[in-house]
C-alpha cells in the first residue's frame, strides 16, 4: 500500500500519559502491522511515514542497511527541528562508511577500561554536588542541583569545554531538542556549532588532555576530518552525554521516590540491585521517545507491510521496550527481570558508544544518593514535573525534601 493512499493516518508524535509513560496508543498499534503517520511540518514540510512499534520489527529496523540514517539524502525525514543540509547534525545521521569512519575516531574514549578510570573523578564530583545540596533549604530542586549538573560537568571535562560555559550548553541543548519553535531550535543549533568550531580550532594549536584536542590534533590538523565533521562529533557527544544522562538520572531517582517498596529493594544489600535497576528504568521510561527516523533505500518488507524506496520510517523504541511479548507486565519496573534486551541504547551499527560512561554515572549517582539521603521524598505531584513536547523525555525539576 503506497503511503499516500493509506486510510486513517495518525498525527505523530503522540503525547505521553500524565504519568510520563509512553503514549497509550502504542499498545494498540503493536497489535497491528506498521501504521502510516503524519510527521509535522517544521524544519521540513509535513510528510507521511511508516511507524514501527513491535519489538522485533524495531530491532530489525535499527540494524537493517536498507534503511538509511543519512539526513543529507533528498527527502530524508527530520525529527529534531533543524533543517538538513550539506553537513549532517552528527554521525548518527550518516550511513557507513562515513558513519564508521567518524565513530571509530572516538571509540577508544568510551571503552570499559577507559571509563573505569573515571570512577574516582566522577565520585568526587558526585560527593561535592551532594555536599552542597545537603546545605540547601527544603524543599530544593534536586534536578537543578544534581542530576542536571553531574553529567554536564563530566561530559564537559571529557570534551575540554570550560566549566564556565556549561550553562550555555545546557540552554542551547535544551532549545535545540525542543519541538516548539523550529526557528529557535535552528538558531541554538548554529550557536552551539559555531562555539565548538572555534574551540576546536583553538585546541588544534593549544591542545589539552581532552577529546576535542585529540580530534583536532590527530585528525583535523592532518586533514583526516573536516572542521564541520569534528563539530558534529563533539556536538553529538555533548548533547547525548549531557541531555540523555541528565534526564535518565532524574527519572531513576523519581522512580524510587514514587515507590517505597522498589526503593527498599534497590537500596538493599548495599545497592546490589542498582545496576539492573538502571537498565530496567531505562527500558521503562525509554527517554529517546521516537527520535529514530530512517529512509528506505529500496523496496522492502518490514513487519508485514511493503515499504517503497524513498519512504520514511519512524522507529519507536518506547513501543518496543513495552512490547508485552518480550517484557511481561511492561508498565511495572521489575529489578529482577532480565532487561538486557532493551533497546534504549539502540541496536546494530548505531548502538550508543557512551553507554559505559552513562552507566557509571547513573550507578554512582544513585548509590551515593541512597546512602546520603535515606529519607528523600518528592515535594510535588510527579505529574507536574515531566517535560512535554521534546525529543528526549525527562523532567523540568525534581523538588524534594529529606
UniProtKB/TrEMBL annotation:
Database matches in SUPFAM superfamilies: Cytochrome P450
Alphabetically ordered keywords of this record: Heme, Iron, Metal-binding, Monooxygenase, Oxidoreductase
UniProt source species: Streptantibioticus silvisoli
The name this protein goes by in its record: Cytochrome P450
Any matching Pfam family: p450
An example molecular function term from Gene Ontology annotations: monooxygenase activity
Span list, region Disordered: 66-90
Family in the record: Belongs to the cytochrome P450 family.
Stored Gene3D superfamilies: Cytochrome P450
CDD domains xref list: CYP105-like
Amino acid at each position: 500500500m503506497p503511503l499516500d493512499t493509506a486510510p486513517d493516518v495518525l498525527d505523530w508524535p503522540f503525547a505521553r500519559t500524565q504519568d510520563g509513560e509512553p503514549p497509550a496508543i502504542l499498545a494498540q498499534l503493536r497489535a497491528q502491522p506498521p501504521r502510516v503517520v503524519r510527521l509535522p511540518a517544521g524544519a521540513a514540510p509535513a510528510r507521511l511515514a511508516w511507524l514501527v512499534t513491535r519489538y522485533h520489527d524495531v530491532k530489525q529496523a535499527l540494524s537493517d542497511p536498507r534503511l538509511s540514517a543519512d539526513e543529507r539524502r533528498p527527502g530524508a525525514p527530520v525529527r529534531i527541528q533543524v533543517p538538513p543540509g550539506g553537513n549532517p547534525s552528527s554521525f548518527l545521521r550518516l550511513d557507513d562508511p562515513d558513519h564508521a569512519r567518524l565513530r571509530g575516531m572516538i571509540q577508544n574514549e568510551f571503552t570499559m577500561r577507559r571509563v573505569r578510570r573515571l570512577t574516582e573523578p566522577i565520585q568526587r564530583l558526585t560527593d561535592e554536588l551532594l555536599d552542597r545540596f545537603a546545605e540547601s533549604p527544603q524543599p530544593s530542586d534536586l534536578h537543578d542541583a544534581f542530576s542536571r549538573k553531574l553529567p554536564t560537568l563530566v561530559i564537559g571535562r571529557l570534551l575540554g569545554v570550560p566549566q564556565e560555559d556549561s550553562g550555555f550548553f545546557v540552554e542551547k541543548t535544551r532549545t535545540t531538542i525542543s519541538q516548539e519553535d523550529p526557528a529557535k531550535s535552528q538558531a541554538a543549533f548554529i550557536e552551539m556549532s559555531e562555539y565548538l568550531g572555534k574551540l576546536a580550532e583553538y585546541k588544534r594549536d593549544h591542545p589539552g588532555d581532552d577529546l576535542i584536542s585529540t580530534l583536532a590534533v590527530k585528525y583535523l590538523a592532518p586533514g583526516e576530518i573536516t572542521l564541520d565533521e569534528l563539530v558534529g562529533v563533539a556536538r553529538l557527544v555533548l548533547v547525548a552525554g549531557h541531555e540523555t544522562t541528565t534526564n535518565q538520572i532524574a527519572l531513576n531517582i523519581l522512580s524510587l521516590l514514587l515507590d517505597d517498596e522498589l526503593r527498599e529493594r534497590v537500596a538493599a544489600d548495599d545497592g546490589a540491585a542498582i545496576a539492573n535497576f538502571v537498565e530496567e528504568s531505562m527500558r521503562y521510561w525509554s527517554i529517546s521517545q521516537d527520535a529514530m527516523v530512517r529512509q528506505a533505500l529500496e523496496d522492502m518488507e518490514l513487519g508485514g507491510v511493503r515499504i517503497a524506496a524513498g519512504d520514511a520510517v519512524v522507529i519507536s523504541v518506547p513501543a518496543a521496550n513495552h512490547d508485552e511479548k518480550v517484557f511481561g507486565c511492561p508498565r511495572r519496573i521489575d529489578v529482577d527481570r532480565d532487561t538486557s534486551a532493551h533497546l534504549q541504547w539502540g541496536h546494530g551499527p548505531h548502538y550508543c558508544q557512551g553507554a559505559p560512561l552513562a552507566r557509571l554515572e547513573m550507578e554512582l549517582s544513585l548509590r551515593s544518593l541512597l546512602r546520603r539521603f535515606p529519607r528523600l521524598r518528592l515535594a510535588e505531584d510527579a505529574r507536574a514535573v515531566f517535560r512535554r513536547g521534546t525529543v528526549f523525555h525527562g523532567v523540568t525539576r525534581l523538588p524534594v525534601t529529606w
